[in-house]
Write a structure and sequence with these properties.
The complex is a heterodimer of chains A (437) and B (564).
Chain A: E1 2-4, H1 6-14, H2 17-23, E2 30-31, H3 32-37, H4 41-50, E3 54-57, E4 65-68, H5 76-85, H6 94-102, E5 106-108, H7 135-140, H8 167-181, E6 185-186, E7 193-195, H9 196-199, E8 220-222, H10 231-242, H11 257-261, E9 263-265, H12 270-281, E10 288-297, E11 309-320, H13 324-336, E12 343-350, E13 353-363, E14 368-378, H14 380-386, E15 392-400, H15 402-408, H16 424-429
Parallel strand pairs in A: 6-10
Antiparallel strand pairs in A: 1-5, 2-4, 3-4, 7-9, 10-11, 11-15, 12-13, 13-14, 14-15
Chain B: E1 3-7, H1 8-15, H2 21-31, E2 34-40, H3 41-48, H4 51-54, E3 61-66, H5 77-87, E4 109-111, E5 121-127, H6 134-149, E6 158-164, E7 172-177, E8 183-184, E9 193-194, H7 195-202, E10 221-225, E11 231-234, E12 238-239, E13 252-258, H8 261-275, E14 287-291, H9 298-306, E15 312-314, E16 320-324, H10 335-346, H11 366-380, E17 384-385, E18 391-392, H12 394-397, E19 412-413, E20 423-424, H13 429-437, E21 446-457, E22 467-478, H14 484-497, E23 508-512, E24 518-528, E25 531-539, H15 541-546, E26 553-559
Parallel strand pairs in B: 4-7, 17-21
Antiparallel strand pairs in B: 1-3, 2-3, 5-13, 6-13, 7-10, 8-9, 10-11, 11-12, 14-16, 15-16, 18-20, 21-22, 22-26, 23-24, 24-25, 25-26
Classes of the chains: A alpha+beta (437), B alpha+beta (564).
């Protein structure tokens, strides 16, 4: 329904501004300056000009003069407003309506009306719907007399204030479980700082190897050196690097004890495996299975999937006459517990294992073979100087903890998983870790 | 792993057949190579620079193949092809034999004692009667570059120089002289320079400037002369222009100067054997005798090894095989290397799976077992586990906590790339506070914990490396109010879980303490059986602000090793 505004009321009585302008112009014309003094002058002038009811002679002396340019006019605006006043507002076109609304002569008011009838629960007294059972209701039994508001099952429940475990640690727990189920004993890896001797030399990794460079390894300035080593063993290690022996030709370079003494942040937990195998060799040999899952450090370039610190998973089996077939068998058992049954092995190279195999599994989603780990048989140059019996073979394999975690939890940037920039919401929302589904 | 780029079509031509990308990938898998990338020169330039610079470049398909780090014989097209052809029984394993020159004596390289001060060793060889095409020439140069980058450790251990033998005459002398006394016209220059001038000249050369440091500060520089006093090269920097090789060169004199004789020999052997196919025959190395390591018959094993370029035959004594190791295989130093090659030829995936027979019962590492049990129950108490970095800046464990770094007992890294890797952490607290700072949008309160290792210097006997790890439990509560009672409650609950009673003496108790980390009057030390195991309290506002936080915060950190 249309209402006339106050201004609209005035116009319907007296006529629109432009009509009144037209009316007040005499035959000899009216000075524009005079017209502007009138209350309806400004707006009326503009409108009358656009309606072409008047014209201006700018050349006359004394200032611009306004003249009528038509004989008669029809005051459309006033007529329309009068229509509205008389209830004939349905006759107004949209264009005219918005024109008048723009000039604030009309306002549109929406009036809604409803039909109301009595419903089935109509009553003249008021009753309230209960939301919950209370102790009083239960005890008194008057829950029977109450109406209960229905639950909205589309909404979520209240988010609980609970604690959470970190996804990487959840995956670690599962891997630890797998090793224990397979009879593997956990190695003591609580030493981030290691000497180059145990980390590299005892593993038959030569001293000029690129991995021992400043840009791949973190060296310590304090404490800088380890001076205490089992001396007989150190001499045998020196010999096998320089001249060979134990069936080997050696690397034929000058092995320096100063290099071996340098402390580093361990680059792999294989350093601990070396310590454990040496310890094992000092007593009567019994077959062992060892594992570890702990932090290692690399001084390399960082990117979305690489950090300076990450966790390595390592498994080691030492027994008489172990073969490559045994290594593959153990790997199959291990990966089956991760739900991976299709494996392929590819020849690879590690300084301390020979043969070495990269382990590939078939990814159904990506429809291709992806690398899931590295493995090998430790070289005799590593085992024999320790004093292990000649017919004992040691097989080992490793993989990173971060990679399967990122795949399992759908994380693309490693910084959202490890370190202080962790995405806490992801930690709150992460599901339990089931590695074999 | 080193990468070799070869033109695919040249490779297939040399292999005698074409492969689809999948077929070639499979061949690589069996042999132990990786087809890393299929690209073209144009694509490479586009990627590294931009499309306009790539406009004129070649579209020819390139295979980028990763080869094992110890296989210098696979670093060029020639070596790859030879290895693969023999593997696929398309070619007989080559035998390399040293040949004498048709007329006259073999060439001599005389090494003088002056070289001992700077670059003591040198080896040399001659490739006779060779025919270069543009591709072979490019491959020859490329192989030298690859060897320089890998085994030569960027020319510092070994440097290669190749010369047109017909432009010069032996015997050759390898000596060392003060830089001002060395004067020659280097490669691609039109006038002579002294060595001192060359050092300045090459300081701005994008390629050579990286090698100057190897000899720059030495009193004498290495130099090789021919019998007429012409300079062949000044290793490891640059060769002389006089003896440069071209497509027309027929006889190549190769010299390798080095600080490691073994590596020099490997480099020389590689160059010579790789390109000998374009001339006549090269030389032989030693012989291994090993027993057959497989359940396969000795004949089969001999055949398998021969497919890997390790010519083998039965000695007739038991199941012994005599294996000839060619000079291309410097990676073979023990019988186990031969075993691997036999396995590769057999096919790793053809080997039958078996299981180790021994029965073992597992034991958990006690400290880890305790940690696993504890973290479950701390999470059950309503705290969220985080995993923070073991390396941090000096400020993180020093100034920011109001402590002097020298008094923290921190282990220092000597070659950190950034300040974030200066020390190994001595407390878990900074990591937890940084986690809060990075997660400010999360609803309050934030209740975080971590049970993990810190590193402390330790000079005691038995701590061989001079530092040890210490397993700590640390928790923080961050909210509009400090929540000391919550942290205290968590500590009480932890003691309960560890089976320690709230009893002065045999159990635990806390008493007021002072610590720059905590607000005065709101810090307590935890004692178990009379010994301090940690502290808890309301963090000092200075600490809160230094870690870019704004709310009150309480924290607890204790050592859990005493509870084993």
């Amino acid at each position: 329904r249309m209402h006339q505004c106050f201004l609209g009321v005035e116009i319907s009585e007296l006529g629109s501004h432009e009509a009144r302008v037209f009316e007040c112009i005499p035959v000899e014309g009216l000075l524009q300056s005079e017209l502007m003094k009138l209350p309806f002058g400004k707006i009326g002038f503009t409108k009358a000009m656009s309606n072409k009811w008047i014209r201006v002679d700018k050349t006359s002396e004394g200032g611009p003069l306004i003249f009528r340019s038509v004989q008669t006019i029809v005051d459309q605006v006033r007529e329309k407003l009068l229509n509205v006043l008389n209830g004939k507002d349905a006759e107004l076109e949209e264009k005219e309506k918005s024109e008048l609304k723009k000039r604030r002569l009309l306002s549109e008011v929406t009036v809604k009306s409803y039909w109301i009838t009595k419903g089935s629960s109509f009553s003249t007294t008021i009753t309230k719907q209960e939301t919950e059972l209370t102790p009083e209701m239960i005890v008194s039994g008057n829950w029977k007399d109450n109406k209960f508001k229905p639950y909205n099952f589309e909404a979520m429940g209240v988010p609980l204030d609970c604690g959470h475990l970190h996804p990487l640690m959840k995956v670690r727990t599962q891997f630890r479980q797998i090793f224990l189920e397979m009879g593997f004993t956990e190695m003591p890896t609580n030493n981030f700082i290691e000497s180059s001797f145990w980390n590299f030399d005892s593993l038959f990794q030569p001293q000029q190897h690129p991995a021992r460079d400043q840009h791949d390894t973190f060296f310590l300035s304090d404490p800088a050196l380890t001076l205490d080593f089992p001396q007989d063993y150190l001499q045998r290690v020196k010999k096998v690097h320089t001249e060979g022996g134990f069936g080997s030709q050696g690397y034929k370079y000058e092995w320096k004890v100063e290099e071996a003494q340098k402390n580093i942040l361990r680059t792999h937990t294989t350093a601990v495996s070396a310590r454990m195998l040496y310890k094992l060799a000092q007593q009567k040999f019994t077959p062992v299975k060892y594992f570890s899952i702990d932090r290692v450090f690399r001084n390399e370039t960082l990117d979305a999937t690489h950090l300076a610190e990450f966790h390595q998973i390592e498994g080691v089996v030492a027994d008489y006459d172990l073969t490559l077939g045994d290594l593959m068998g153990v790997l199959h058992q291990f990966f089956t517990k991760l739900g991976i049954t299709k494996l392929r092995f590819k020849p690879a190279y590690n300084p301390y294992t020979e043969p070495s195999m990269e382990v590939f599994s078939y990814h159904e989603g990506l429809e291709k073979w992806v690398e899931v780990g590295n493995s090998g048989v430790f070289r005799p140059e590593m085992l024999l100087p320790m004093g292990l019996p000649e017919d004992v073979s040691v097989i080992a394999w490793g993989l990173s903890l971060e990679r399967p975690t990122m795949i399992k939890y759908g994380i693309n940037n490693i910084r959202e998983l490890v370190g202080h920039k962790v995405n806490l919401q992801m930690v709150y929302d992460g599901p339990i870790c089931r590695l074999d589904t | 792993m080193p990468t070799v780029g070869v033109k695919r079509d040249l490779l297939f031509k040399a292999l005698g057949r074409s492969y689809t990308d999948e077929e070639f990938d499979e061949l690589c898998f069996q042999f132990g190579l990786e087809l890393d990338e299929i690209t073209s020169e144009k694509e490479l330039i586009s990627k590294e620079q931009n499309d306009s610079k790539a406009a004129g470049a070649s579209d020819v398909i390139l295979y980028k193949i990763d080869v094992p780090a110890n296989r210098y014989d696979l670093l060029c097209l020639e070596g790859l092809v030879r290895g693969l052809q023999v593997f696929k029984n398309k070619l007989e394993a080559p035998r390399y034999v040293r040949v004498s020159p048709v007329s006259g004596q073999p060439q001599k390289l005389i090494i003088t004692k002056e070289t001992a001060a700077v670059r003591p060793y040198a080896v040399a060889a001659v490739l006779r009667d060779i025919t270069f095409t543009q591709e072979r020439y490019d491959s020859f140069i490329e192989l030298q570059e690859k060897l320089h980058q890998n085994i030569c450790r960027k020319r510092s251990i070994v440097a290669i120089g190749t010369h047109d033998l017909d432009t010069t005459s032996g015997p050759f002398t390898y000596t060392a002289k003060p830089p001002s006394e060395i004067c020659f016209q280097p490669l691609n220059q039109t006038k002579e320079f002294t060595a001192t001038e060359l050092m300045s000249l090459y300081r701005t050369d994008s390629h050579l400037k990286h090698y100057l440091h190897i000899i720059e500060d030495k009193p004498v520089y290495p130099v090789i002369y021919d019998s007429n006093g012409i300079v062949l090269s000044m290793p490891p920097i640059i060769n002389g222009d006089h003896t440069k090789i071209s497509l027309k060169t027929k006889n190549v004199f190769i010299e390798c100067t080095a600080t490691d004789l073994t590596k020099a020999k490997v480099v020389l052997d590689t160059l010579v054997t790789m390109f000998s196919q374009y001339s006549s025959q090269p030389n032989l190395k030693h012989v291994f005798i090993s027993s057959s390591p497989h359940s396969e018959s000795t004949e089969t094993v001999a055949q398998l090894l021969t497919r890997m370029c390790l010519l083998s035959k039965l000695t007739g004594v038991g199941d012994q095989i005599e294996v000839e190791i060619p000079p291309t295989r410097s990676d073979i130093i023990h019988a186990c290397d031969i075993v691997e090659d036999a396995a590769i030829a057999y096919g790793f995936n053809n080997i039958t799976r078996t299981t180790p027979r021994s029965y073992t019962v597992a034991t958990q590492f006690p400290l880890n077992k305790l940690t696993e049990l504890l973290r479950q129950d701390v999470a059950a108490a309503g705290f969220t586990e985080v995993l923070t970095f073991a390396l941090c800046s000096k400020e993180d464990v020093g100034d920011k906590l109001g402590k002097k770094i020298s008094e923290t007992g921190a282990a220092h890294i000597s070659n950190p790339k950034t300040a974030e890797f200066q020390v190994a952490r001595t407390t878990l607290l900074p990591g937890l506070l940084k986690t809060i700072a990075a997660n400010k949008k999360m609803p309050l309160p934030l209740k975080l914990f971590e049970i993990s290792d810190v590193v402390l210097k330790d000079k005691s006997k038995g701590v061989y490396v001079g530092a040890r790890n210490s397993r700590r439990f640390c928790a923080v509560y961050y909210n509009k109010s400090p929540g000391f009672e919550v942290i205290h409650g968590l500590m009480d609950r932890t003691m309960q879980l560890l089976g320690v009673k709230p009893l002065r003496g045999e159990g635990y108790h806390i008493q007021a303490a002072e610590d720059s980390i905590f607000f005065p009057g709101r810090c307590a030390e935890i004692f178990v059986d009379g010994k301090s195991v940690g502290r808890l309290g309301v963090l000092h506002p200075n600490v809160v602000t230094r870690f870019e936080l704004t709310m009150p915060c309480s924290a607890l950190e204790m050592d859990i090793e005493p509870f084993l």
